[in-house]
Design brief:
Elements: E1 3-6, E2 9-13, H1 28-56, H2 70-75, H3 79-110, H4 116-124, H5 131-141, H6 150-162, E3 179-183, E4 186-189, E5 199-203, E6 231-237, E7 261-266, E8 269-275, E9 281-284, E10 292-295, H7 315-340, H8 344-352, H9 357-368, H10 370-385, H11 389-394, H12 406-415, H13 421-451
Helix pairs in contact: 1-13, 3-4, 3-7, 3-10, 4-7, 7-10, 8-9, 10-13, 12-13
Length: 452
C-alpha cells in the first residue's frame, strides 16, 4: 500500500493498487477449467497413443517380453518393409513436387483466360471425392481389359491407329485340313500349288460374331481361265453355324476370312503376297506356281491389350498419378490465392525492362510465390508420408508388395494374418520421426514470416 505525506502532518494511506488480471480478463483457474477438457482429449487421443506406441515398439510379438531394438532392426532388414521405405521415399519426392508444379502451372495459366474459374472448379472437384472413392475409380481406370479400363482403352486406341492388329488371333486348321504348322505361329500348305488346282485354305477357331466387318459368304475359287496363268484360292472359316457343313468344302453359309494375308514361298523366300477379299478369295501371280502357300503368324498374333498399369513395375507410378489427380487442385487453389496478392506493378516493370513472359515467371512470379509454394509442398509431403487408402484400394493383391508404403505396412504388420504389434508400433514411431523434421521446418518458417 502506498502512502502520501503532507507538510507538517502524518502520511495518509493512498488508494489500493489495481489487481492484475490475465490477458483474457478472467482468473487463471477459470481459464484452466475451460482448457482442461481439450487437454484431456489431447492427452487421450494424441499423447497417450504416441507414448504407448513407443513403449510397445520395444516389446516382442506377444507383448510380454522386452525385445530392445529388434523391432527397429527388422524394419531395415525385412524385404517387404524395406520396399515400403523405398516407396515412401519415391512418394515424398515425386508426388508433392508434381502436384505443386501442376498447381503452379494451372494457377498461372488460368489467370489469362476468361473461363479460368470454370477450369479451377473442374480441377479442384476431385478434392470432394474421398480417398476410398478415388481408389475405386482408379482401380477401374487401370483395368487391364481395354473394354473396362479407360487408360488401356485410350492406349490401345492410339496403338491400333499406328499398328494394325490381327483379325484372327485364335484361328487354326484342323488335322483334316490341307495346312500344317509352319513354325513361329504360321501355317503352310502340305503341297505346292498350281494354276490348275485352286488353293483351299480353311481355318476354324473364329467365332462368327468375331469375324471382320464386311465379311461375306465365301466364294469357291475357279481354276483354268479365271486364273489367267496365276494362282487362285479361297481362305474361309470352315464352320457352318448350326452344323451340316463339310470339311475342306466351301459351304453356302461359311464366311470368307476377309483381309487375311497369304504368302507364296519358294526355297524359304517369299515370291508373292496377297490379301483375301471380303469373300475370302485371293489371287497370286504366275511366279507363285509350284510354291507353298503360307499364312504368316501376323494373321494370328494376339491383339494388343495395352499396358499392365497395376503390374509390379508400374503400380507405384500409377497410384501416384491418382494422388496427383486429387491434390493438384488443392495446390492450384492455394497458389492462385497467393498469386492474387502479387503486386502487378512488379510484373509490369519487369516487362517494361524487356523481360519476356518466361523470364517474368521465373525471376519475378516464382520468387514472390516462394512462401506459398513452401506451404503447399510441406503440406503435401506430410500428407504423402501417411498415404494408405489409395495404395490399399488400387494395388491388386499380386502387386501390393511392390506398391507397399509405410502406412500400409503398419496396418499389415499390426492387423495382418501374422500380426506383430511390436513391429507395427516401430513403424508408427518411424513415421512420427519422419514427420517431425517437416513439421519443425514448417513451424520455423511460420515464425520467421511472423517476425518479418
Amino acid at each position: 500500500m502506498s502512502t502520501a505525506t503532507t507538510a507538517g502532518g502524518p502520511a495518509k494511506p493512498g488508494p489500493p493498487a489495481p489487481q492484475r488480471k490475465s490477458a483474457t480478463g478472467t482468473r487463471k483457474v477459470i481459464a484452466a477449467g475451460f482448457l482442461l477438457p481439450a487437454l484431456v482429449l489431447l492427452g487421450a487421443l494424441v499423447v497417450y497413443p504416441i507414448g504407448y506406441s513407443v513403449y510397445r515398439s520395444f516389446l516382442d510379438q506377444s507383448g510380454s517380453g522386452f525385445a530392445g531394438f529388434d523391432n527397429y532392426v527388422e524394419i531395415f532388414t525385412d524385404d517387404s518393409i524395406l520396399t515400403a521405405v523405398k516407396n515412401n521415399a519415391v512418394w515424398v519426392v515425386v508426388a508433392p513436387a508434381v502436384s505443386t508444379v501442376l498447381g503452379l502451372i494451372f494457377a498461372v495459366l488460368t489467370e489469362r483466360v476468361s473461363w479460368g474459374t470454370a477450369f479451377k472448379l473442374i480441377v479442384f472437384m476431385p478434392m470432394a471425392v474421398s480417398m476410398l472413392a478415388a481408389g475405386i475409380i482408379f482401380r477401374l481406370v487401370y483395368e487391364q481389359d481395354p473394354d473396362r479400363g479407360v487408360a488401356n482403352a485410350v492406349w490401345v486406341g492410339v496403338h491400333d491407329t499406328f499398328a494394325e492388329s490381327s483379325g484372327f488371333p485364335k484361328a487354326r486348321p484342323l488335322p483334316v485340313h490341307p495346312l500344317k504348322p509352319g513354325g513361329g505361329g504360321s501355317f503352310v500348305t502340305e503341297k505346292p500349288v498350281s494354276a490348275a488346282s485352286p488353293a483351299l485354305l480353311p481355318l476354324v477357331g473364329v467365332a462368327p460374331a468375331k469375324m471382320p466387318d464386311g465379311a461375306r459368304p465365301a466364294k469357291a475359287p475357279e481354276p483354268g481361265p479365271a486364273a489367267e496363268g496365276g494362282i487362285t484360292g479361297t481362305a474361309w472359316l470352315d464352320f457352318t453355324r448350326g452344323g451340316g457343313g463339310r470339311p475342306n468344302t466351301v459351304d453356302a453359309k461359311e464366311l470368307g476370312l476377309k483381309g487375311i494375308t497369304v504368302e507364296a514361298v519358294k526355297d524359304g523366300r517369299v515370291v508373292a503376297t496377297a490379301r483375301a477379299g471380303a469373300d475370302g478369295s485371293f489371287s497370286l501371280p504366275a511366279s507363285a506356281e509350284g510354291a507353298l502357300l503360307r499364312l504368316p503368324a501376323e494373321n494370328f498374333r494376339e491383339p494388343y491389350n495395352g499396358v499392365n498399369w497395376l503390374g509390379p513395375s508400374l503400380v507405384t507410378p500409377a497410384v501416384i498419378g491418382s494422388y496427383v489427380w486429387m491434390w493438384a487442385g488443392f495446390a492450384m487453389v492455394l497458389i492462385a490465392a497467393g498469386l492474387a496478392s502479387v503486386p502487378r506493378e512488379l510484373l509490369e516493370a519487369a516487362r517494361i525492362d524487356g523481360a519476356n513472359e518466361w523470364q517474368v515467371f521465373r525471376r519475378v512470379t516464382v520468387p514472390l510465390l516462394a512462401p506459398v509454394l513452401a506451404v503447399v509442398l510441406v503440406t503435401l509431403m506430410i500428407n504423402v508420408l501417411k498415404i494408405f487408402d489409395l495404395v490399399y484400394i488400387i494395388a491388386p493383391g499380386s502387386a501390393q508388395d511392390d506398391a507397399n508404403v509405410l502406412a500400409l505396412q503398419l496396418y499389415r504388420s499390426s492387423f495382418g494374418a501374422d500380426s506383430h504389434l511390436g513391429v507395427g508400433s516401430a513403424i508408427a514411431v518411424l513415421l512420427l520421426l519422419l514427420v517431425i523434421p517437416v513439421m519443425f521446418f514448417n513451424i520455423r518458417r511460420m515464425r520467421r514470416e511472423n517476425r518479418g
